[in-house]
Amino acid sequence: QVQLVESGGGLVQAGGSLRLSCAASGRTFRSYPMGWFRQAPGKEREFVARISSSGITTYYADSVKGRFTVSRDNAKSTVYLQMNSLKSEDTAVYYCAADRGTNDYAYWGQGTQVTVSS
Question: Which stretches of the chain drop beneath a pLDDT of 50?
């Protein structure tokens, strides 16, 4: 099992940047692919980005491709989401999650709020 804690959210103007962090506890962090998701008010949670356990392979939602970058540091048991050129539609609570396999995101953090003002 792994516990996840997100940080780095906040209020930023449109066009600005934020970097989210997701710190994991547990020795097995490096074995999990990790995902970032977000949920805006009144909307369903949506996929944002994913990174393989090694960090070599990444995937992005079309809405963030070219603006967001997911990375990880297995030595620090942390996954990051660098968000650039932020838009008001990026406003949401952002969650990280660990994939037990075949898109089985079994472990979730508590979320961090990102608010982009236009």
Answer: none
